Amino acid sequence: MTEKTVLLEIDNVHAAIEGKSILKGINLTINKGEVHAIMGPNGSGKSTLSNILMGHPKYKVTEGRIRFLGEDLFGIPVDVRARKGLFLAFQYPLAIPGVPVAKFLRLSLQSVKGKDVPVTEFLKTLKAKMKLLGISDTFIGRYINEGFSGGEKKRHEILQMALLEPTLSILDETDSGLDIDALKVVASGIEHTRSPERSILIITHYQRILNYVQPDFIHVLADGRIIKSGTKELALELEKKGYDWVLKEAGLPVTQQAVSA
Amino acid sequence: MTQKATVQPKDYKYGFHDDVESVFTSGRGLTRNLVEQISAMKKEPEWMLKFRLKALDIYEKKPMPSWGNTKLLKLLDFDNIRYYVRPSEKTEKNWDDVPEKLKNTFEKLGIPEAERRFLAGVTAQYESEVVYHSIQADLEKKGVIFLGMDQAVQQCPDIVKKYMGTIIPPGDNKFSALNSAVWSGGSFIYVPKNTHVEIPLQAYFRINSENMGQFERTLIITDEGSNVHYIEGCTAPTYSSDSLHSAVVELIALKGSKIRYTTIQNWSNNVYNLVTKRAAAYEDAAVEWIDGNLGSKLTMKYPAVYLLGERARGEVLSIAYAGKGQHQDAGAKMVHVAPNTTSTILSKSISRDGGRTSYRGLLKVYKGALNCKSNVRCDALLLDENSRSDTYPTMEIDEQTASVGHEATVSKVGEEQMFYLMSRGLKEQEAQSLIVNGFIEPFTKQLPMEYAVELNRLIQLEMDGSIG
Asked: pTM for the complete prediction?
């Protein structure tokens, strides 16, 4: 294997929302081509982590650094991060009434690529991606997430990921609330996005997604910190034994609601 | 040129000012002598002069409206307005004959392209006179009359006399009286029985002289079983002192006919846009006002449909955009006089940068107008904390069988929506424009493609201009 390139470096990051401290010193390094999964119970800081990585203005990094391809992301606005190759698949994607999906996706693609994409070329690319993911054509003419079912919203997120080809994709509980078919779309989207040049961070509450996607590394997030890291064996162990032992090992109370598969 | 610094955003695209020599420019202020002069210059018949003078008397007696934005209305200086400017001697029918300078202005506005694309006929109003007018041969063959209003007075006086001022009499309000006294230009359309005009007819209006009052007068009559779609787009250049635009538009849809009237207005931020628009819809007739209001300092405009015959249908679909220092006081009126009539009002407004929008509407159902249906919906979108939106719906329902729905919403562009769009690489302004475009989508989808694109672009331009 060739030498590893560091893509994302999270160094002792503390973060807060509206003055409430949520992350308490996160350390994580993701190299190019790697797939990481972060698992953790409710309230462990999963969503905060994805939001600070993408640069949500409500979430404040109070300490530590995040570097993306060697560059400090502090103060860099969300749209610039997107153009640098970061992507967040939302847990609850919002509806934007009246804005057709195709129009939005083309604008996004043009923004991220930094150049004009002619309509015909765009539609060709889009349709190819949709076919790959088994997404129906009727999507194109609908308005962004308006009247979408939960599964459709997640498919739409994955379609965006496949289209924009980000260097780092963060999936914020994209797998929760999905039926098996939708879960397979998500999994196949991840598999198609996977390449030596691109990395994926799967943030999840459930182990189920790991039956379809095999991450290189697994981390357990609890109380705003990563309390355990390992390879896929860890996932199997967690599935078998639950979370309590990890929490106990970290000195955290086990009364905290644990992940149930 | 005496153009001074203005409140316009620096890149207001249509703020150019061509140095066109006017053939006649009235002094400032309104006199009986001026009204006589206008009529004489137009070589009008006696009845039209009388109509004007009677209107002038009414105008002088009528008080200013006591409602709406009275503060801004008070600032309107009637003595400092030129009521009549005539830029060239005759009405041109062929594009090649239009003076070069006027043509340049039209070209900046994209008129020739627009014509090539889809126009059946063009009446472009430059200052107070119709200078360019063309009508396709097949329209003439069908017997459709599409003229400048001044020409119509000369060429079909009987029909003009029969209908002009019947829907909006001079005494209706101060501004309709003013218009009736000094009107100039505007369009006249008559569609004969059972005739369908497939292609939209279009006029392009433009004010190009400082303090020039624009008082166009439009009259459209669709005879039984016919239909027409008329489109009017307006844009004005930037000036340092206030201009007044006060049009009167009368529509008459006879039995079983249909009129759609589409307007996109983009006045510069110093224009008072005080317009009276009203339609009469007879048995089984339909009238649709598609009304887009951008720009201007103050717009007061409430397109109305009087549903006079059974099963007549009225519709108003409007959007208003108010930026810094602007007040869009717009709305609609539906008056149900006959049974089984239906009406729909959808009003969408956007306020930004301290701008103010108001929806002012009237829904009236007369006793005996059985089984009427009406649905009113107003949606306001606020783009920041400084902007404002109000709703003043008036309902006078004197008939128990009426079915009336009313819904009003006010929403703000949310941080989460912005974050979502921007996380896909869209810049702040692009994201905001996209949300706004989506918000007015029910309106734009009713426009011909070119207009929809133009409208979205105009809004983008307004929003770009008001940031930083």
From this structure: 0.81
